[in-house]
Amino acid sequence: MTLSEISRELRFVIDARFKDHGVSNARWQVLWVLEELGEPVSQKRIANLLGIECPTLVRMLDRLEEDGLVRRQPSVEDRRVKLVELCSKAEPLLEDMHDTIVRFEQELYADFTEEELVKTHEVLLRLRDKVFELSGKTREDIIDHISQRLNCC
After folding, report:
1. Within a 13 Å sphere around the CA of 98, how many CA atoms are in the beta-carbon half?
2. pLDDT bucket at 152, cuts 50 / 70 / 90
């Protein structure tokens, strides 16, 4: 429950901080993934990485495209596949988002030592691995399951 509460509140706080930029939690995650990958990527891959349904992603991409932040083009190899990439209009927004996150992380981590943060991260990774072990699944199983569920993009 604690992890769930932290996750929910983090999304709420980040949403509030990004509200001035006109970007919701769902939209900033799509932009962030595109920036991290640094190349045109299929809608299916974005949905897999975010763990969301294709129709949900398509609606987000529609709005991001209307705002001039992303563009979709058919793949040269497979015209059924839509590749998504950032538009230049997204660059200043992403810079502002980075600045916002850096300031937020400074506030969030201010009362913790580097050692505490490193140890916490190690414990969370071990906890994640244990959850997968107890569920009888691996991280790859989860990714494969999501991929099969989202096979519509």
Report:
1. 9
2. very low
The DSSP string of 59-123 is HHHHHHHHTTSEEEEE-SS-TTSEEEEE-TTHHHHHHHHHHHHHHHHHHHHTTS-HHHHHHHHHH
Query: For the chain, what is the mean pLDDT?
Result: 88
The residue with tokens 């050692």 is 115
> By percentage, how much of the chain surpasses pLDDT 90?
56
For the sheet with 82-86, list strands across it. 41-42, 82-86, 70-74
- Structural domains of the chain in order of their starting residue, each with its CATH number: 1-111 (1.10.10.10)
How do beta strands 82-86 and 70-74 pair?
antiparallel
pLDDT at 145: 52
pLDDT tier at 21, thresholds 50, 70, 90: confident
